[in-house]
């Protein structure tokens, strides 16, 4: 996207109420006038710094003038805006579009939300399943001699797990010594 298109897209945002104050606009105009390459001539700079005209009018005229001059002039305006009003520069609508259009860049706000969208109930459910599988594997391992202890634990478990699940586990534990 060219800088002229970006400037046209950002024009309403920049000229809307109280985005840029007079000091910042004056600094931008002076930078465009004094820094190499000279974008504004002395006469143009005086015109855009005229305190008799309203800030909105001066800023609108400056943006239209830069848009007519070409892409290089618009690029220098963005550079001056970044130097003199970095927060506003980062909040520009065209900057937000550029940030989200990069497929390799990760939007950290969205990524943070996506990682945290499950609540504590999901964590407890996953932890319970993992603990249950670990206990089941430990009790069913043929090398361990804890089957008697496991029967005692499962015998007192109608509060923890349902009766149907407990009965299945007990039948499985009774089958292990037969094999």
UniProtKB/TrEMBL annotation:
GO terms for cellular component: endoplasmic reticulum membrane; mitochondrial membrane. It comes from the Eukaryota. GO terms for biological process: regulation of apoptotic process. Residues 38-96 form the CARD domain. It is found in: Endoplasmic reticulum membrane; Mitochondrion membrane. InterPro entries: CARD, CARD19, CARD_BinCARD, DEATH-like_dom_sf. The keyword Membrane applies. The chain crosses the membrane at residues 120-138. The keyword Mitochondrion applies. It is a single-pass membrane protein. Gene3D superfamilies: Death Domain, Fas. SUPFAM superfamilies: DEATH domain (SSF47986). Keywords: Disulfide bond, Endoplasmic reticulum, Membrane, Mitochondrion, Transmembrane, Transmembrane helix. Associates with BCL10 by CARD-CARD interaction. This is Caspase recruitment domain-containing protein 19. It comes from Edolisoma coerulescens. The gene is Card19.
